[in-house]
Amino acid sequence: MRLDRRALLAGAAATAALTARAAQSGEPVYSPAVSLKGTSVLITGCSSGFGRLTAELLARAGARVFATMRGLPRPEADELTALAKAEGLDLHVIPLDVTELPQVNAAVKEAERINGGPLGVLVNNAGIGITSPVEVQDMEATRLIFDTNVFGPHRMARAVLPGMRKAKRGLIIQISSQLGRVIVPHSGHYSATKFALEAMSEQLAYELVPHGIDVSIIEPGGYPTKVWVNRNAYSLALKERSLAVHSAGYPEHVARMGQEDGSGRTNDPMDVARAIAALIARPPGTRPLRLPVSGGAIPQTPINRVTAEVQTGWLGNSPYGPLVKAVHGR
Questions:
Q1: Active site residue 223
Q2: Residues with Cβ < 8 Å from 24, sequence gap 6 or more?
Q3: Does residue 78 or residue 8 have the better pLDDT?
Q4: Could you say which DSSP state residue 63 is in?
Q5: Which of 37, 70, 161, 200 is the most exposed, having the fewest neighbouring CB atoms within 10 Å of its CB?
Q6: CA distance 152 to 68
Q7: pLDDT tens, 224-269?
Q8: What would the DSSP string read from start to end of 43-104?
Q9: Segment holding 208, helix H or strand E
Q10: Helix, strand, or coil here: 40?
Q11: Which of 40, 176, 201, 216 is catalytic?
Q12: What is the pLDDT of residues 167-196, one digit of tens each?
């Protein structure tokens, strides 16, 4: 008898989710009428961009939202708090720098206290970019980007998972990138961090199947958020301290470091917020492992398909087969 997700997830909720999977196909679709009442969500990196938009959208859909950001007090936190008060939203701003373990643990503990129990959803959105040829990336830049983009989500997952496992339910959404599957030259270690995030997330998805916890990776394309403002600051600082023995090999690319202008993009960043809402609204056990979101090309689609086939073909008949097949729906 084949052991599938129905056997691995306990209880009636899991059975209902598997039945729903058979009835549903394709990607999660956002509906403005969706109600997320009763859902608790912690989101990192909510000062602007995807994080801020997602916090507002989910709260307006009825979710209890814990919008976290670093560097409090700051105007963005005050604005979000005022918005929540004006609209009567169940939205709480909590200080959190994902590179600081004490802050991670304190933020999750506070969110669980306010929530009265384990969190239902974690959205690992906080991330940075530092643009340059790889040779120019010194160890200061390398440590910072991995600490934020890889170790940060790892810290957050470790903080929320004991509660989620106890509740036997939960969802972790990782905000990756198209560049977590394809590579653009002279983008520094951004792809390296997002490739690492993708691998860590896929492994986590397999390991959490018996606990009834889903992991979904969103892979956005290019959107006109303020991420490029911080990227310019980091890249300019790197350029100013770079050693000529390295930077001299890439004069044109080094000259452009810190001068990116992302304001010309026209894709709607709400696409990502809506995709997150659609994932949360979907029944447990039916959420895709990877969800590309883009207003333009989606070059990673064949890569995602092939890797799922390879994983299933390689491990499908092994003792790991039930975990792999549960995640990939095969």
A1: no
A2: 282, 283, 286
A3: 78
A4: -
A5: 37
A6: 13
A7: 887 888 899 999 999 999 999 999 999 999 999 999 876 667 789 9
A8: ES--SSHHHHHHHHHHHHTT-EEEEEESSSS-HHHHHHHHHHHHHT--EEEEE--TT-HHHH
A9: helix 190-208
A10: strand
A11: 176
A12: 999 999 999 999 999 999 999 999 999 999
Q: What is the DSSP letter of 283?
A: P
Our CA dihedral for 88, 278, 168, 41, rounded to 10 degrees, sits at -30
CA distance 325 to 330: 5
Quick check: 194 and 124 in contact, CB under 8 A? no
* Known active-site residue 190: yes
Angle in degrees, 0-180, between the axes of helices 301-315 and 321-328, rounded to the nearest 10: 150
From 103, 50, 95, select the one nearest 68 (Cα to Cα). 95
Residues 6+ apart with CB under 8 A from 140: 238, 241
Active site residue 176: yes
3-class secondary structure, 213: strand
Split at pLDDT 50, 70, 90, the class of 330 is low
Taking domain 5-15+40-328, whether its CATH number is 3.40.50.720 is answered by yes
Please give the full DSSP string across 130-178, using - where no structure is assigned.
Answer: --S-GGG--HHHHHHHHIIIIIHHHHHHHHHHHHHHHHT-EEEEEE--G
Q: What is the mean pLDDT of residues 286-307?
A: 95
Provide, rounded to the nearest whole percent, the portion of the chain with pLDDT above 70. Answer: 91
* Residue 15 pLDDT > 70: no
Query: How many residues belong to the chain?
Result: 330
User: DSSP letter string over 237-257?
Assistant: HHHHH--HHHHTT-HHHHHHT
What is d(CA 107, CA 93) in angstroms, rounded to the nearest whole number?
10
Active site residue 247: no
Whether the model pTM is above 0.85: yes
- At residue 1, the 3 state secondary structure works out as coil
- Distance in angstroms (rounded) separating the CA atoms of residues 11 and 167: 12
Residue in 194, 216, 242, 294 annotated catalytic:
194
Q: How far is CA 161 from CA 10, 65, 121, 212, 321, in A?
A: 17, 18, 10, 11, 23
- Tell me the pLDDT of the chain averaged across its residues: 91
58-81 confidence digits (pLDDT tens): 999 999 999 999 999 999 999 999
